[in-house]
Structures are given as structure tokens and as C-alpha cells.
């Protein structure tokens, strides 16, 4: 979930991202809480793929990024690495 409002071309997706309109607790839920709503919002976001690529490239270990949880991103890294 991006919080930076930079205009750098590689991060331009952050400004229009749907998560920018929701609070961080939505994408960083308490342990054991559901990530379903965050993933649903990600699924409707045009920046989902760029967000996921950012999270993977920057080794984001917490929260929902690009529609995937921490465990799902770790699994994706293992499968592609």
C-alpha cells in the first residue's frame, strides 16, 4: 500500500491507487484479521500490477500489496526464484 505521493514516473501509479483513499489499517490488518476487503479493493485498482511489482522489488514483508498478502508474496517469490 503506497503512502508516498511522488510524481516520479516509476511510482506514478501510487497517486491514483485506490488504497490512497483508504486508511493503512485496511491494508495492514492486525494479525489474524481478514485481508479479504483489502484484496477486493486491490482487485478493482488499475495500479494493482505496478503495486505488486513494487512490493516484490522492494521486499515488502508486511500488509497487502497488489492484492497479495505477505504469505502469498513469499510463495510467489519462491515459485519464481
Automatic annotation (TrEMBL):
<dbReference type="Pfam" id="PF02467">
    <property type="entry name" value="Whib"/>
</dbReference>
<keyword id="KW-0804">Transcription</keyword>
<protein>
    <recommendedName>
        <fullName>Transcriptional regulator WhiB</fullName>
    </recommendedName>
</protein>
<keyword id="KW-0238">DNA-binding</keyword>
<comment type="similarity">
    <text>Belongs to the WhiB family.</text>
</comment>
<feature type="domain" description="4Fe-4S Wbl-type">
    <location>
        <begin position="18"/>
        <end position="75"/>
    </location>
</feature>
<dbReference type="InterPro" id="IPR034768">
    <property type="entry name" value="4FE4S_WBL"/>
</dbReference>
<dbReference type="InterPro" id="IPR003482">
    <property type="entry name" value="Whib"/>
</dbReference>
<feature type="binding site">
    <location>
        <position position="42"/>
    </location>
    <ligand>
        <name>[4Fe-4S] cluster</name>
    </ligand>
</feature>
<keyword id="KW-0411">Iron-sulfur</keyword>
<feature type="binding site">
    <location>
        <position position="19"/>
    </location>
    <ligand>
        <name>[4Fe-4S] cluster</name>
    </ligand>
</feature>
<keyword id="KW-0408">Iron</keyword>
<keyword id="KW-0963">Cytoplasm</keyword>
<keyword id="KW-0479">Metal-binding</keyword>
<comment type="function">
    <text>Acts as a transcriptional regulator. Probably redox-responsive. The apo- but not holo-form probably binds DNA.</text>
</comment>
<keyword id="KW-1015">Disulfide bond</keyword>
<feature type="binding site">
    <location>
        <position position="51"/>
    </location>
    <ligand>
        <name>[4Fe-4S] cluster</name>
    </ligand>
</feature>
<feature type="binding site">
    <location>
        <position position="45"/>
    </location>
    <ligand>
        <name>[4Fe-4S] cluster</name>
    </ligand>
</feature>
<keyword id="KW-0004">4Fe-4S</keyword>
<keyword id="KW-0805">Transcription regulation</keyword>
